[in-house]
Amino acid sequence: MNRPPQVVPNGPSSAVGNGLVPAPHPPPPGGPRLLHRVRAAIRVRHYSSRTEDAYVHWIKRYIFFYNVRHPADMGRDEISGFLSHLAVNERLSASTQNQAFNALLFLYKAVLDRDVGQISGVVRADRPRRLPVVLTHEEVGRLFAQLDGVVLLVCRLLYGSGLRLLESLHTRVKDVDFQRLEIAVRDGKGGKDRVTVLPATCKQELLDHLERVRHQHGRISAGGLGARPFPMRLPASTATPTASGDGSTSFRRLLTTPIGVPVSGTATTCMRR
């Protein structure tokens, strides 16, 4: 006897930890489920993993908001209602509401191959205009005086190079040109590469840091540890760096320390990835 489809009640708690079960439209035998199709469509376009997680999150919120109705059975009216709910009832910011809107547009256009047309009647969250807060040189100096170790080095690079936080933490040794005082940013925001300046005042400190980490890396590599992931575009056969060879540390992240190795100063755990 066929069991009736289960209806999950609306609310945030019902969506946590649950998979997508589109009762009105069960997936064909052997066919991928909707969220699998969403992830595949995102990855084939080389979107970042953060974008993938955010889009999947909002698509699941959208589906559970309408009691697990399949998005193929919904359209612009449901999208408008969901976005208005985010602004009016949950009082989310304009940027968060726009992220949810982009996720739903991606779902309908790239996955379901549907054009939902112009969506009107959406209550938009207000985007407040605020003046930027700019620190003076003296204030920056007092801030840096409270830091030390790798944390201080990261903050000096952020201040002098204009790097974003994750860009600085993901910078690899091979991306730093100490002769030309340049840093190559790989796969930055929007998946774009660019070149920025390496502050001359950070050069010697970076070289000293690399020398310390190189010795640490050699010690723990002898014990079979210390491997770091390579970029996605490299073949899997080269995915594990070793302690031997001229390029053994060139793919290591610049501002991280080997896991399990104690480091003095405040630089220790928050920069390890």
Short note summarizing the structure:
The protein is mainly α. It contains 9 helices and 3 strands.
Would you mind describing this structure in some detail?
The protein is mostly helical. The protein is built from nine helices and three strands; from the N terminus they run ααααααααβββα. It has helices at residues 12-15, 34-44, 49-65, 76-88, 94-111, 137-144, 149-161, 165-170, 200-221, and strands at 176-177, 182-185, 194-197. The protein has a three-stranded antiparallel beta sheet, with no helix packed on it. Residues 1-27, 238-248 and 257-273 have low confidence and may be disordered.
Structural features:
4% strand, 2 domains, mainly alpha, 9 helices, 3 strands, DNA polymerase, domain 1, elongated, three-stranded antiparallel β-sheet
Topology:
Blueprint: H1 12-15, H2 34-44, H3 49-65, H4 76-88, H5 94-111, H6 137-144, H7 149-161, H8 165-170, E1 176-177, E2 182-185, E3 194-197, H9 200-221
Antiparallel strand pairs: 1-2, 2-3
Helix pairs in contact: 2-3, 3-5, 4-5, 7-9
What is the spatial order of strands in the main beta sheet? 1-2-3
Order of helices and strands: HHHHHHHHEEEH
Largest sheet: 3 strands, antiparallel
| CATH architectural designation of the largest domain | Orthogonal Bundle
Question: Strand percentage, roughly?
Answer: under 5%
Q: Specify the oligomeric state.
A: single chain
Uncertain runs = 1-27, 238-248, 257-273
CATH evolutionary superfamily of the largest domain: Intergrase catalytic core
The overall average pLDDT, rounded, is 76
Under CATH, the topology of the largest domain is which? hpI Integrase, Chain A
- The helix tally amounts to 9
Helical coverage, percent range: 40-55%
User: What is the overall shape?
Assistant: elongated
Calculate the terminal CA-CA distance, rounded to whole Å: 51 Å
* Total separate domains: 2
Number of strands: 3
